[in-house]
Amino acid sequence: MSGAEGAPRERKEIPMTARKQQRYRRLDRAERAVIERGLDKNRSAREMARDLGRSQSSVADEVRRNRTIARGQAKGGRVESAPEAACARLRRWPHVCNGCNKRRYHCSMPFRCEYSAARAQAIADATLSGSRRGVDRPEAEFERIAAAIRADLARGLSPAQISAGRAGEFSASPSTIYRWIARGYAGMSNMELRRKVGYKVRKKAALRPTAHGPERSFAAFSALSEGEREAACEMDTVMGKSSDHQCVLTLYLRCCRAQVLLLLPEKSSSAVAAALDMLEGAIGKAAFQRMFGLILTDNGTEFSDWRSLEKSCLPGKGARCRVYYCDVRQSQQKGGCERNHVELRKLLPKRRGISFDDLEPADMAAAMSQLNSEPRPSMAFMTPAAALAAAFGDDGHALMGALGIEEVPYAELLMSAEALNSARRERGRGPLI
């Protein structure tokens, strides 16, 4: 064998027009753009099909199927069939006005249609999306799943919590559950999602610094390290009826999303200081400083006396905490606490006739048990109670024991006022509502 005969043969590039037609797949945006340009140049369906590696019928059907009305009120609408009085060009190839020299100014025909790659792609996408609507589950199985979802929604759980809590029973992402609800499958509706219908339009206010001095302002708080800010506690109060004397002091631990609720006899700075004294006495000064050593709150009158809030009730030198204040009317600066109040209001809803004067410390324990047993998507569906114990160890367990917080199993979670009413009936007390 000679050297020339033994050398590898050079492969010749085969042009697209000579290639064997490819296996069927949907036309894409680039191919539709080629078809539009070909129509504008009066090319035949066979020529365009050869360039694209498609069949001639695929190109012809694409033009006929996705052509749109060119003018009038129905402009952009899909053309099912050309009327009998239409131009002969529309009743045979190319089925559109593209490439006609009278298209722009001199055509007297009342009905015109055209092929646009962008509109054709939108029509094709909508058709594909519509064909995939519905639920890819057997009817009996979906009815069972929908019943479980509705039961959990009635207990005040979110789609994200349902998706994680029911993962062993069925597979559905939070977005899938939201979509099923929005489309009304199995009688579900967005009215069952409290946060979909419960928000009011927010009023914007001018930014004003706190009256407690720059050293306690939100700017000073923001200047702290990220680790210190993440370990802070957000403090606020929740009110009942306007005639009520009692209110609820809320302490939200950022690092573990845990919520502490303390019942106050009145909305005053002395009552808040007494509640913090009680909490410090129950868990000790060292544990208090570790969990509540940095507090961010608003400018309410009940938090005005920062000296009494910071002063320790136990022997020893040094303050028990450091208090910072949000800017005036900027409650979103302690957004974690505000968002958690949405969950609290599931248990103590507004405008339902609940008087906070009827609340007892045992009711706060029941509410904290429910709130801190909700699986949180932001913590990979870990519960705040578990996160509290993991973050603070014995101090966390001491806090839960002192306040009567117990972790509630997912199957027993009930995020409604009935959770407190049930606990009150066990104690021989009347319902709140």
Textual characterization of the structure:
The N terminus is likely disordered. The strands form two sheets. A five-stranded mixed β-sheet has the order 5-4-3-6-7, with helices on both faces. The chain has a two-stranded antiparallel sheet with strand order 1-2. It has 20 helices and seven strands. It has three domains: 108 residues; 56 residues; 213 residues, 2-Layer Sandwich (Nucleotidyltransferase, domain 5), CATH 3.30.420.10. A hairpin with a 4-residue loop joins strand 4 and strand 5. It is an alpha/beta fold and 433 residues long. The termini are far apart.
Short descriptors:
Nucleotidyltransferase, domain 5, 7% strand, alpha/beta, 433 residues, 3 domains, disordered N terminus
Give a concise summary.
The protein has helices at 3-6, 29-40, 45-52, 56-65, 88-91, 117-131, 139-154, 159-165, 174-182, 194-197, 218-222, 226-230, 269-283, 285-292, 306-310, 335-347, 361-371, 384-392, 394-403, 417-426, and strands at 68-69, 113-114, 233-238, 247-253, 258-264, 294-297, 322-325. The protein is α/β, with parallel strands linked by helices and 433 residues long.
Which parts are unreliable, with pLDDT below 50 for 5 consecutive residues or more?
Answer: 1-5
Question: Which CATH C-level class of the largest domain is it?
Answer: Alpha Beta
Give Rg in angstroms.
34 Å
- Give the overall silhouette: elongated
The helix tally amounts to: 20
Helical coverage, percent range:
40-55%
Structural class: alpha/beta
- Average residue-wise pLDDT: 88
β-strand number? 7
Give helix and strand order, one letter per element, not per position.
HHHHEHEHHHHHHHEEEHHEHEHHHHH
Proportion of residues in β-strands: 5-15%
CATH topology description of the largest domain: Nucleotidyltransferase, domain 5
Mind summarizing the main beta sheet? 5 strands, mixed
Separation of termini? Answer: 101 Å
- Shape-level CATH architecture of the largest domain: 2-Layer Sandwich
Name given to the CATH homologous superfamily of the largest domain: Ribonuclease H-like superfamily/Ribonuclease H
Give the strand order, joined by hyphens, for the main sheet: 5-4-3-6-7
State the domain count.
Answer: 3
